[in-house]
Design goal:
The protein has 76 residues and is mainly α. It has four helices and no strands.
Length: 76
Amino acid sequence: MSTVAALRRRREAAADARGLRSWITTTDHKRIGLLYIGTALAYLLVALVFALTMRTQLAAPRAGIVDPGAYNQIFT
């Protein structure tokens, strides 16, 4: 088997691959774009939870939702 045939077979196998590994190791620009969008949405949700936690803490004096050290970590 030639090197070209081996590479062709490997490419075809990678194109047919399914699952998490195929998504993580992809070089397809469309899949990479979807991964970027998914990551951005995940970080947006984390930031939303942090923002709601901070606003809940500030809603009342001595609310006690988070301790001062944790509040500073969320803030920075």
